[in-house]
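Posting here for the record, re: arginine.
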Amino acid sequence: MACLFRRAIAEQVSQVLGLPAEKLIPCIHAIPVHRKQDSPDFQLYVNSLSVDNFDGASHNENAQKLASKLAANSIISEIGTGRGSVTFKINRELLTETILKKIYQDGSLYGMNSELLSNTPKGLTLVEYSSPNIAKKFHVGHLRSTIIGNFIANLKEAVGCKVIRMNYLGDWGLQFGLVGAGFSKYGSDEKLRANPLQHLFEVYVKANAAANKDEDMKSSAQDFMQRLENGHPQALSLWTQFRDLSIEEYTKVYKRLGVQFDEYSGESFYNKKAQDVLKLLKEKGILKTTGDGKGVVDLSEQGDVSTFSTVMRSDGTSLYITRDIAAALDRMEKSNFNEMIYVTDKSQQTHFEHLFKILEILGKVGNCQHVKFGRVQGMQTRKGDVIFLEDVLDEARSRMLQNMANSETSKTTEDPADTAEKIGIAALIVQDLKGPLLSDYHSVIFTLRQLLRYDEVIHKTLKDLQPRYLVSFLMGLGHLVNVAHHSLHVKGSSPDVAHARLLFFNSVRVVLASGMRLLGITPVDKM
Ligand code: ARG
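Prediction output follows.
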């Protein structure tokens, strides 16, 4: 596959330039498929080579000079030049045979064990994603976090990292006071059991409205929170019930999305530990108290508190960020991860910048990264505003069922609802992860050349953690194979031809499926 070809090119160039082949391999890129029938397969930009062999002439001249010293052989059938680059065309027969054989051998591992990826760190990655707030809306940001985080975790795992998938629930704070206090008035055990997320949200909305009007509700919410903080058994058992039932329901919905977690953590775990963090900050002289009694950490370069992060309320209680500091320290200690990735919308950018800065001040730089995404306008179903993830998935499924019913080419499948569910969710995921699309393209040679780029796409995606490269690659591949599929019949062809074509389509199927699984999509066999 691609590696074999890159190596063959690198070895030739290495002899001419006297640079080690290993150094050259990453500079050799598969050329993306485009309209021009006869374009070469690989290129090497001379400006990516740090050599003195070139005597200050232009990149084009240097490329020509280098090209003139290289010769075609049994692997490289043609050598040419492009803008500032030397281009290489691979022997067609060898290209076809090598790619198909490699995919046949590697199956869904194709591309993942490439030489290109040999230097990517393979340690333990903790990915924290989804992280909704119990008793509040599961908004589009949570859906995006779920889809993107799942993708990142899949990708890391596919290239050999060990991965911890973590859901950090918003399971603490005033909304619990309201739900806890409001439950005796507006709650029903039966409804709670039947539909916990929806019911808790209803109770929250009612209690919240009441608290805005009358002081009684407000103070009983505060009371409930106080009891919870003090570990009062009755309050605690109600809270535990809310949390457990919510997780149970979330788990069901995540399953529909093909998403799972190794661990359900949450802010509640770090309520007490946040107090230890405050103590630690105090001991280290990092906690400053403001005139109104709040505790802050100075984040300014100059030490003039021109930027700061508030970590303690004036009544001594912790905040969202304090719990995040506690959680990060705890995770570092417990799992000893090599990297931690938080996935949220970009409104939390400053929050995470502050968090990482405070960790750094504490001397705990743990290779943490915030992957952020844009916020989306409210999502709507036919019933109205989206509140529950389940509604989004139901909507995707029902629209797809409708499409299937309206389409003459849909085959009858054993379980249309199941097919509709998978395709509906696939549409949802692709809609979310897509970027610039590859424009149209044709025939087997094009498709094979697209397959040739798979490891590079994985490499690039891994570097930036931007799913769109992979989505665009898969869309391109899908498009190419679709075109090929119209002209290359298997049925009715001679056994030899039919066999070759079948092998070709099967290879594409394997790569498409493995890429889709990375994105969190379950491929369907029939539709
Ligand atoms: N529950 C939060 C929210 O809905 C997201 C949590 C993100 N993760 C974190 N460690 N702060 O906004």
